[in-house]
Design goal:
Elements lengths: L6 H18 L5 E6 L1 H12 L4 E7 L5 H18 L3 H10 L7 H13 L11 H6 L7 H19 L23 E6 L7 H10 L5 E6 L6 H4 L1 H12 L13
Helix pairs in contact: 1-2, 3-4, 4-5
């Protein structure tokens, strides 16, 4: 029942998993990494139960979805014009700038957003790549069921008229105090969760440690497109903290 799919429910489920992981590994606190939608869940988990975590790392960090969509549209239109892609420009001008009142219109913007994503993440936006994430015996029916589940979640969080809870998210009006170190690693060219909003959020919050690292020439999927650089930066940020499970020899 998609009515049971709420941000609070997903946060609660995440905390339950974190409690299990902490018990499973002898009471050690957890380093929590949240990406994109997961970054919204991650922030709420850390604010709600800081006792479970020794640090939070956000990447592709959600801050304010309405503001992000306005910035995203302008950036995608800029890239379409730069590429002299008349089809994309016509489609984007046809729907106009956000806000939108239906998921289909937002889907037009998001389709071109994927088309003009930075080169390093193009392959990650294809269904062929998605299939590589699943076991060999993952059937077409399994994939269809996965897509139905994804669609149900989207409907619950975004709403068919884009009136769901996701469009009301504004971390800049939420809790400003963290009790654990908080770090953000963003792709410079992120056109889904704009880095400019993350800068605003870093200025807004207070934490024992906080910082924003921007990876040049990478986009929304920097954690996937530059895993070595991302891990190196993550280690650098975590070593001065009390996250003792991260050592100089950790790869």
């Amino acid at each position: 029942d998609s009515a049971n799919i709420t941000i609070d429910r997903v946060v609660s489920d995440g905390i339950e998993v974190a409690e299990y992981v902490k018990r499973r590994f002898g009471g050690r606190k957890i380093i929590l990494l949240g990406h994109s939608w997961g970054s919204l869940v991650g922030v709420h988990m850390v604010v709600t139960r800081p006792d479970l975590f020794c640090a939070y790392i956000g990447t592709g960090q959600e801050v304010n979805k309405k503001r992000a969509e306005t910035l995203d549209y302008a950036e995608v239109l800029r890239r379409a014009r730069l590429a002299q892609n008349s089809e994309a420009e016509k489609a984007l001008l046809g729907i106009g700038a956000p806000p939108y009142n239906n998921a289909a219109t937002l889907g037009v913007e998001q389709r071109w957003e994927s088309a003009f994503a930075v080169k390093s993440e193009q392959k990650f936006n294809s269904m062929d790549y998605v299939r590589t994430l699943y076991p060999p015996d993952f059937s077409d029916k399994d994939m269809a069921d996965r897509m139905k589940g994804s669609s149900a979640s989207y409907q619950a969080i975004y709403g068919s008229k884009l009136d769901g809870p996701m469009l009301s998210v504004d971390l800049l009006a939420g809790p400003a105090v963290f009790r654990v170190p908080v770090f953000f690693i963003q792709g410079e060219m992120d056109d889904v969760t704009p880095t400019s909003l993350v800068r605003d959020y870093v200025r807004y919050i207070r934490a024992p440690r906080k910082s924003l690292t921007v990876i040049p020439n990478e986009g929304h999927l920097a954690v996937m497109t530059d895993p070595d650089g991302f891990l190196k930066e993550m280690r650098r940020l975590l070593l001065p903290t009390n996250c003792c499970i991260v050592s100089k020899n950790t790869r």
